[in-house]
Amino acid sequence: MKNESISKNDIQSVNDTKGFQERFNQLELDIENKKLLEENIKLTSMVKKLQQKLEVQRTYRAMLAHEIGTPLTLIQGYLQMVKNGDIHPTNHPYHELAFEKVAMLSRLAGELQELSVIEKQEAMVRLERMNVSDWLKRIERFGSFMVEQSGRTFYWKAFGRPQNDFVVFMDFFRMDQVFQNLLFNAIKFTDEDDGCIEFHIYWKAPNHIKLVVQDNGVGIAKEDLPYVFKRYYRGTEGSSGSTAHGVGLGLAIVEEIVLAHDGTITVHSHEGKGSSFIIEMPLKDQSASLGTTDYINRK
């Protein structure tokens, strides 16, 4: 009886061990399946993102071809008419139109070059020293020139006053890009006859400034506002609903430069009433601030 009892216990022990081993194997299989499922989800997500990027690139190439091809066709037609003797080179409305298209292509080439630098991770801000009053005069000069040359009205207002000898450090070349892009957009979306563009300066503190570029143009659609600083996003032209011209790089570049100076940029707009772009940023006033900053990784 004793041997029989031992034999039964042994059998039970073997069965228990076998059952444990099966459960352990199943647990390992479940863990492995879970890992495979997680990896599959990650791969699926990566493939989806890659497909979206490829679709953006395809759309962008088609858009770029259109943006380049259309003005080139007009310029070619104008030059052909001049060559044939059909019109005088300078005494015809096409002369001004062709000049505008050349300027547009030049601007597009500049934006594409800037984008290339950004994507290669080579873009830097290089801080330089300048008296704050000289800096503001610099902005006022090229701002009034750009706007008045376009036939619009330009107003300049300053609220508060900085110290006369206050020196700031910033990348003035990059900041010129910021205001040129903002003024260019304001000109582009305001009417030549009654367009009004204003530049406001608010001294919130000795070393903190708020800058506003405001226009009375067509405004930005509410659904477009969250995306205006996104690369390649063009949105619509006010209440017309038509797709805006350009390749959607200007404001993306503007935001990256402002962020590189530890600043922020926001936009307020109402369709049919105009838009305001607001920049707030600290002013670096110590020589220790001199140097370079990689602004690609700041976003």
Automatic annotation (TrEMBL):
Histidine kinase domain sequence ranges: 63-285
Catalyzed reactions: ATP + protein L-histidine = ADP + protein N-phospho-L-histidine
Compartments, record wording: Cell membrane
Taxonomic superkingdom: Bacteria
E.C. number: 2.7.13.3
GO-annotated biological processes: cellular response to phosphate starvation
Membrane-topology descriptor: Multi-pass membrane protein
GO molecular-function terms, A-Z: ATP binding; phosphoprotein phosphatase activity; phosphorelay sensor kinase activity
A GO cellular-component term linked to this record: plasma membrane
PROSITE patterns linked: HIS_KIN (PS50109)
Keyword Phosphoprotein: yes
Taxonomic source organism: Allobacillus salarius
CDD domains, per the entry: HisKA (cd00082)
Protein name in the entry: histidine kinase
The entry's keywords: ATP-binding, Kinase, Nucleotide-binding, Phosphoprotein, Transferase, Two-component regulatory system
